[in-house]
Amino acid sequence: MDVNIERRGHSFQKGALSKVNIGSSWFILSILVLHVFVFTVISSIFAHNLPLDAVESLYWGKEWQLGYFKHPPMSAWMIDIVVQLFGRADWLIFASAQICVVMAILPVILIVRERFGAKAGGYTALAAFLTHFTTISAVEYNVNMGFLPFWGWMVFTFLKAEEKDKLGWWALFGILSAGGMYGKYIAGVFLITVTLWVFLKRRDLLKRPGPYLAAFLFLIALTPHLIWLVHSNFLPIEYAMGRSGSDDKSWFDHILMPLIYVVEFIYSVAPMLLALAIAAGWRRISTISLTRIKAGVNRVWADPFMFAALGPVLVITVISMVLGADIKTAWSIPLGVVFAGLIGISAAALETGSGDFKNRFMVSWAALYGTLVLVYIAIFVASPLAKNKPARMLHDGPELARLVESYWYSHETAPFEYVVGSRWPGGTVAWYSSVRPSLFEKASLKYAPWVDMSDLHQKGALYVDYKKPRAMVAGMCATDLQKMLWPAAGGKIYKKHPEVWVATLKPATGLDAVTCVGN
């Protein structure tokens, strides 16, 4: 009897899944909407504080600079537009990150559907969510999320321009490429990739006006940022080089670092490959031969989309080899999104002649995607039990802002327009306070060049940081120093509970000057 029930259940599952039209636009749309909903809701329910990079993007975005000491400005501009249009709410920031993911995947789906068929597009939509790039790592709105859509649409517009050779497509490619560079300099990797493709496979395009129009619009659009970059002494590039650790490298780093990068990239897309392998089955996998691998390499060399998917991986590997640089896997997040297109193409081809392929792929997708969702939830649930200090998203930002504002208004009557401190506590207060002050990060114009020092000295500021303030901070006297606990979710007190110092910063000169007490 149990055997019959199991067989009937299997038959029902097989029958239900066989009715799913994986290439349907409605199916693809439902997957995209489901993902945005699931990760936005989970984050909104469990998180009590925006993550660090999101906080940083928000206080950058408020200032509308042409660049910041870490990154170019596009992601900060984008999130501030969201805030200006819809107001301040954490769920909007979480949703914005997921919408960026979907907007990056959409052009990949469109180009795959057009070139390889509707089924390939459907499998691409599923595969794109089988990586931490688009799930667990994508919950935090930051420069990677803001940049992500530009990479997808750069791929789309270049392939359209390369195929149709219409000036309109070339113009769009040039403008979007400039937008990509305003998002993150890793966009240059794709530009190197397409340049290689044109010189190696499509030199006929060099006799046409399209590529030159794209280059002209790209340079015109990028000029304001290039001018800022020169005036800032190339701060973002200095930051990136510092993170890559490309100085003082040993000879073996030129071998080890690119190998580590490739292994980490394969690890990041491994769930996609696993779903494909499960669906294909061992019998098909065992037939893979050197001849088939060579045929696959030749196909990549012949197809512009496949080259656009794998070429950037090769370019980054070569850069790492030449510089001996530790390339951060997060820097290649968009590569994982486009790689999903290769999985979609392969899955559509493997489905032919295999009645159970689609069912196995969808079941394995549901299991792997569900695992990623459960891991994300488990991080919130297990963190308070396993850690002796709260995870960043389990700090209680709104409550800290309430305590700090209560402290401020016990000394002052006017709202504070400036917060002085480090990016995490200071940025959190800047986001959650009833007013939206500017953050003077580390009291340094290097990190916050938007601050008008004369205005700051006239109005004073609120100090919020982990470090006890000195007697004088940014030319102002620190008064009424207090240390307070940073509240955590649910009121939990941890063994190593975070504490912050607060102080009112008052002018040290002028009519309202006070005397700084201490060293």
UniProtKB/TrEMBL annotation:
GO terms for biological process: lipopolysaccharide biosynthetic process. One of its GO terms (molecular function) is pentosyltransferase activity. It comes from the Bacteria. It holds the Pfam family PMT_2. InterPro entries: LipidA_mod_glycosyltrf_83, RgtA/B/C-like. PANTHER family: BLL5595 PROTEIN, MANNOSYLTRANSFERASE YKCB-RELATED. This is Glycosyltransferase RgtA/B/C/D-like domain-containing protein.
